[in-house]
Write a structure and sequence with these properties.
A: 186 residues, five-stranded antiparallel β-sheet, 3 helices, B: mainly beta, four-stranded antiparallel β-sheet, globular
């Protein structure tokens, strides 16, 4: 009787073990944390030619400029000198951006974990002058941001569990990966 | 692992709650904007969580107000952060005060020490999503029902803030599902259920509905001189504000 129970228990353990082994080797599409510092963020913040507007976030006017946030991605800069015919000038990619403010040619914009300062007085040569990390918005240190999760199908959204020892998470990239332990339900 | 997942879920849930609300709520700032002259600051939309007042940048998160000094514009310097309230949504600056829209009311902070905003008072209301704008001694706050703001109401409150120590409601108008709003010398413009409603402020204590312009999905407004910019489902629509306060469409920046 006792032996029987033990056998059943052993079988169960074996079964479960094999099951979870199988699970963990399965490959999935998930978010991978990208670690880095100021110089890495600098690489992600780029100014390019005008991009089409896809999803409108917050808007901001400054002199003749109109800035339209592309939710979580950056800002479109329009020349709005003639409000009846605004001209799409540039796109400034700022990962995780939602809010901006401008003063004297300096753009202050949030990332998921801080505030960047960009000198935009010359739109052909936008330069990053500072990064403040005291501010934390929708924190991405533990999970991908909401707007990234929203891009995935409903159900489990897997992501590689971030490790604080590896540094600051500056963004999350969608990649094929062995099924990670962390996930969120979408 | 389980713990991480649980924590992240909790965090995510909270973020979703806030995001859901702030997405549709608003408060414009009406800082004068001009490209020529010193100390040029832009104008945020009615969803703003950033506000520049003189040499300071104020940033509102879901619960905390961060203050940065812009004395050196290239390198903002962190000053202070104060816990404000859970469900903080919008930031509006008026003279020497910050008006913060939260799900439970409007909070007033004084900027006597611009590097350290000081809590003064709260105009409390039922739990609703609520952006705010203000001019002179009156603040206008829309309250609306949203999925994350249970027990909410749909209305526009007019709050006398002459005495910032004790803000008091002077009137209230029923609305359909109001969100962003903007203010001029004579009129108040409110995004309400796919319309921009135009109210006369001849008597600033009691706005009177003049008419409306249809704008599907209207949720955010900026007013800059005689131009009104509105964010809607289509994209960004710009209007001329005519002398009688009515709106004439100028252009639409459409989303792809």
């Amino acid at each position: 009787m006792k032996l029987h129970t033990l056998t059943i228990a052993a079988c169960f353990i074996l079964l479960m073990g094999s099951c979870s082994d199988k699970e963990s080797t399965k490959s999935v599409i998930g978010f991978k944390p990208i670690y880095g510092g100021l110089e890495d963020i600098q690489k992600l913040i780029t100014t390019t030619a005008a991009q089409p507007l896809k999803s409108v976030g917050k808007i901001y006017t400054y002199g003749n400029l109109l800035l339209i946030n592309e939710v979580g991605k950056g800002v479109h800069v329009y020349d709005n000198q003639d409000p009846s015919a605004p001209v799409n000038l540039k796109f400034i990619a700022i990962p995780g951006n939602v809010d901006v403010a401008l003063k004297d040619g300096y753009l202050y914009a949030d990332l998921n974990f801080g505030i960047v300062t960009l000198d935009i007085s010359d739109l052909d040569h936008v330069t990053l002058t500072n990064l403040n990390t005291e501010y934390k918005g929708n924190d991405i240190q533990n999970t991908p941001s909401r707007n990234q999760i929203d891009t995935r199908p409903l159900g489990k959204v897997y992501f590689e569990c971030p490790e604080a020892s590896k540094g600051t998470v500056i963004t999350w990239e969608l990649v094929q990966m062995p099924k990670p332990q962390c996930y969120m339900n979408n | 692992m389980k713990k991480i997942t649980q924590n992240t879920l909790t965090i995510l849930f909270c973020i979703t709650l806030i995001a859901g609300c702030s997405k549709d709520s608003s408060s414009p700032s009406n800082d004068p904007t001009s490209i020529d002259g010193g100390g040029i600051t832009g104008t945020g939309g009615s969803l703003a969580r950033f506000s520049i007042v003189n040499d300071n940048l104020y940033i509102l998160t879901q619960n905390t107000l961060f203050t940065y000094s812009l004395a050196d514009k290239r390198h903002p310097k962190y000053q202070t952060s104060v816990f404000v309230a859970t469900g903080a949504e919008t930031l509006f600056s008026l003279d020497n005060t910050l008006l913060i829209g939260t799900q439970n009311g409007m909070l007033i902070y004084a900027l006597d020490n611009p590097n350290k905003p000081k809590y003064i008072s709260t105009y409390a209301h039922v739990r609703s999503c609520d952006p705010v704008v203000a001019k002179g001694q009156y603040a206008y706050s829309t309250l609306r029902v949203a999925s994350n703001c249970d027990r909410g109401v749909n209305r526009l409150d007019v709050i006398d803030i002459l005495n910032i120590n004790s803000p008091k409601q002077v009137s209230s108008l029923d609305m359909e599902n109001p969100i962003g709003l903007g203010i001029t010398q004579n009129n108040l413009y409110v995004c309400d259920n796919n319309k921009i409603k135009i109210y006369s402020l001849s008597n600033p204590e009691s706005p009177v509905l003049q008419g409306y312009t249809v704008l599907t999905g209207c949720f955010d407004i900026i007013i800059k001189n005689d131009i009104l910019l509105a964010v809607g489902k289509q994209g960004v629509t710009q209007f001329t504000i005519k002398n009688d306060g009515t709106l004439e469409s100028l252009s639409v920046i459409t989303t792809d």
